[in-house]
Specification:
Blueprint (H helix, E strand, L loop, with lengths): L1 H5 L5 H27 L2 H6 L1 H19 L13 H17 L1
Helix pairs in contact: 2-4, 4-5
Length: about 100
């Protein structure tokens, strides 16, 4: 129930919801990647900032899964150095493609 969410309770139902939503997010990220790959190079270059954000949020999603969806215990984030590494990697792949 909503009451459990408001009280930040890690119930079995919450765990199942998080697992479902994370799987759904992965599907959206995969679809976005496939669409990006199908676009002309000029359009791919124009979407570089969006692709960097996708990379950052996908890594945060992986951290949420690694934490067994325990998002109420502490904030799950990506350190600035990791965000910069993701950005550099996406930029470099875009440059070399």
């Amino acid at each position: 129930p909503v009451q459990h969410l408001l009280q930040k309770q890690q119930t079995l139902q919450f765990h199942a919801l998080m697992k479902f939503q994370c799987a759904r997010a992965h599907e959206y990220y995969d679809k976005a990647r496939a669409i990006l790959d199908s676009l002309p190079r000029a359009d791919q270059k124009a979407l570089l900032p969006a692709e960097i954000m996708r990379g950052v949020y996908e890594r945060i999603l992986l951290r949420i899964e690694q934490a067994d969806y325990r998002v109420f215990d502490s904030r799950i984030s990506l350190p600035a150095s990791s965000r910069l590494a993701v950005a550099a990697g996406v930029w470099l792949r875009n440059l070399l493609a």
